[in-house]
């Protein structure tokens, strides 16, 4: 069982590292891009790639007949809403604050749900690791923030974090019933349908050049399809609160890429935040949470 858990931990961390590339890739897209359109197209490409991946195996095609529709719909709406709320939050509160609040609040939402709804307790060391990581994300976001973000943006970021936690919890519950690729493909198909109307409301003229499509293909296939296939598989081996905490490796990856590729300055606050995140993730990785009733 230990080796399966470590494989799950590795899959979640690798998924988070792929997510961490999205900010840099979006920055390299043509000027005039609409962030909501990028999010919707990312889900559309990702859903298509996940469906191809799922349909390649006969056992997956058979599993499609036994989809738990309520869970799939809930998870799909949750991850679709997360994308839209997150982009609105970032637009209102700024990239640093919006990202820090959204990503940093997800482990808190998931831990609270597992504690009060499922009776799952976390040990003090594990809780300390989660807290250090969340504080590190806040510090990293604050270090990269400009002027203070609007309160409405912070609220939207909190809601987006709640939607991401809800997706993780719902996916975790379905993990033992179907292959992970089937779960990911079905939920992201729902998410793509939920966000598709955005494409009729925003300008798309920036899609004319080939560089836009290259970036979008990577965002859809690498940073969405592959990453969420790994994340969904990882959720079959670790709890949702563990997964969303380990997913805090995303802002660390984004920070490294921003400094190396984009050329952003390294600040003491940002560096301290990265160290705190990595320290907290190490603690969460080494210490399991307790099963219900223990």
Give the number of DSSP strands: 0
What's the mean pLDDT score? Answer: 82
Which class of secondary structure composition applies to the elements? mainly alpha
* Low-pLDDT segments: none
Q: Using only CA atoms, what is the Rg?
A: 18 Å
H/E element sequence: HHHHHHHHHHHHH
Strand content: under 5%
Please give a structural write-up.
The protein is mainly alpha-helical and 294 residues long. It has 13 helices and no strands.
Descriptive key words:
294 residues, mainly alpha, 76% helix
What's the gist of this structure?
With 294 residues, the chain is an all-alpha fold.
Write the SSE topology:
Elements: H1 2-19, H2 22-27, H3 35-55, H4 58-63, H5 69-93, H6 95-116, H7 124-143, H8 151-174, H9 180-195, H10 210-234, H11 240-246, H12 249-262, H13 268-286
């Amino acid at each position: 069982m230990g080796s399966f858990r470590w494989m799950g931990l590795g899959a979640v961390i690798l998924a988070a590292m792929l997510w961490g590339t999205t900010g840099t890739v979006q920055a390299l897209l043509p000027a005039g891009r609409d962030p909501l359109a990028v999010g919707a197209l990312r889900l559309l490409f990702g859903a298509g790639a996940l469906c191809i991946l799922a349909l390649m195996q006969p056992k997956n095609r058979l599993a499609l007949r036994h989809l738990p529709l309520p869970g799939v719909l809930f998870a799909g709406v949750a991850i679709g809403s997360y994308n839209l709320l997150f982009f609105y939050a970032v637009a209102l509160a700024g990239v640093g604050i919006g990202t820090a609040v959204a990503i940093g609040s997800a482990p808190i939402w998931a831990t609270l749900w597992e504690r009060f709804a499922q009776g799952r307790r976390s040990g003090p060391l594990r809780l300390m690791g989660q807290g250090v990581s969340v504080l590190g994300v806040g510090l990293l976001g604050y270090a990269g923030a400009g002027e203070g973000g609007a309160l409405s943006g912070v609220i939207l970021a909190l809601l987006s974090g709640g939607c991401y936690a809800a997706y993780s919890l719902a996916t975790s519950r379905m993990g033992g019933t179907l292959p992970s690729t089937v779960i990911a493909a079905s939920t992201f198909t729902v998410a793509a349908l939920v966000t598709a109307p955005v494409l009729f409301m925003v300008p798309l003229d920036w899609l004319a050049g080939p560089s836009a499509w290259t970036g979008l293909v990577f965002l859809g296939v690498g940073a969405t399809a592959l990453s969420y296939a790994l994340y969904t598989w990882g959720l079959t081996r670790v709890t949702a609160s563990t997964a969303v905490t380990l997913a805090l490796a995303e802002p660390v990856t984004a920070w490294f890429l921003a400094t190396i590729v984009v050329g952003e300055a390294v600040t003491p606050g940002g560096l301290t935040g990265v160290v705190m995140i990595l320290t907290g993730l190490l603690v969460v990785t080494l210490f399991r949470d307790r099963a219900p009733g223990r």
